[in-house]
Amino acid sequence: MSPAVIDHPYVPRDLILPGFVPCVTSIGRILAVYGFSSIAGVFLVWILSGLSPKLTKMDRTLMCWWLFTGLTHMIIEGYFVFSPEFFAKESPMILSEIWKEYGKGDSRYVSRDSAVVSVEGITAVLTGPASFLSLYAIWTRKPYSYTIQFAASLAQLYGCLVYFLTSYLDGDNFYTSRYYYWAYYITANAFWVVIPTLISIRCWNKISSSSIQSNKNKKNI
Amino acid sequence: MSPAVIDHPYVPRDLILPGFVPCVTSIGRILAVYGFSSIAGVFLVWILSGLSPKLTKMDRTLMCWWLFTGLTHMIIEGYFVFSPEFFAKESPMILSEIWKEYGKGDSRYVSRDSAVVSVEGITAVLTGPASFLSLYAIWTRKPYSYTIQFAASLAQLYGCLVYFLTSYLDGDNFYTSRYYYWAYYITANAFWVVIPTLISIRCWNKISSSSIQSNKNKKNI
What we know:
Chains A, B: Its main location: membrane. Chains A, B: It is found in: Membrane. Two copies of one chain form a homodimer. By secondary structure, the first copy, chain A, is mainly alpha-helical. Helices cover 71% and strands 0% of the residues of chain A. In chain A, helix 1 (27-49) packs across helix 2 (57-82), helix 2 (57-82) packs across helix 3 and helix 6 runs antiparallel to helix 7 (178-220).
């Protein structure tokens, strides 16, 4: 083995990662930092939005989701997109540690698969800001509130579809063990399939009923 | 050269395509068949939709677009998705000839790149039917008319983004000459960037104004 080639846990096993530094942060600690930061942000949005009497509990719950997903897209996924050599980061920084750990469930992140980088790039640069715009639109009751939520949710769903389909077509073999496959690749991503699906359906219905209402109004005039 | 390896025009030059049969149909003939079938369909929709006095010229133009793009997605792109060995088709069948020819502008179609197959799969199986639903929704003035058009257009835009980004990240070198790059890869796809962008903006505005109208109505009640 040449000095530049350091052993790593990822798939394929012959993947060359010059200067690879293993993840030294436990998954418990990663989840604690991610969870605590998210809960702190969500708590703040929940409290502040409670000051506005016009917002329903559903509005406020959705605002919390858009904050959580927007932060995840822009900070965590944004870091991945613009840090191609995260696997060589020496000091244990939480963002690089997250991706070193997640790579055990999908090593395409470490090998910088172009489909993964493209989807994550779109998610970080477009869907992230769209998530914050959704939060703002609900808060300020903008007329495009459902439209932007619908767009952001569809983008999340399309991203997930490309993500899973490319993996399937390339052999569905980018995990270091079945545990990581189910815990990271399937379970972690399932949130971004289930929640955007529910929000899309809700937005579809809201927009349609608003259109019916608007047409009735025109007829009455 | 082994008997199974037949010379082809695609990139990378060392791509192995067992049983490859060259495209024997001229681009003029391909465009004539594609153009004539499309114009025939569009003409039919234009005439039939003209019988409905409630439909504006813009509605009818959009219906023509949704027919054209829906047929392209389901028939042409659908054929590609479910015919992995189109390059070996011996009898000159127009659908396989289209992809043999288009492969000169983007050889990832011939090498069956997983990002291309995924995007085309989503386009053929989901965006195609959504295009026909858009046509139907405009025709029958369904309350979800703008919603489905918005969703289908966003899917087309997301697909184009993944399509161009993956190529860029993989070296942007899948064309057999600059002519094919600009004529097929850039120009042909530009329609699916420009038109969905315009439709998305229109739908966004229509949905938002419908929401304002609906809110005013609620206040008046």
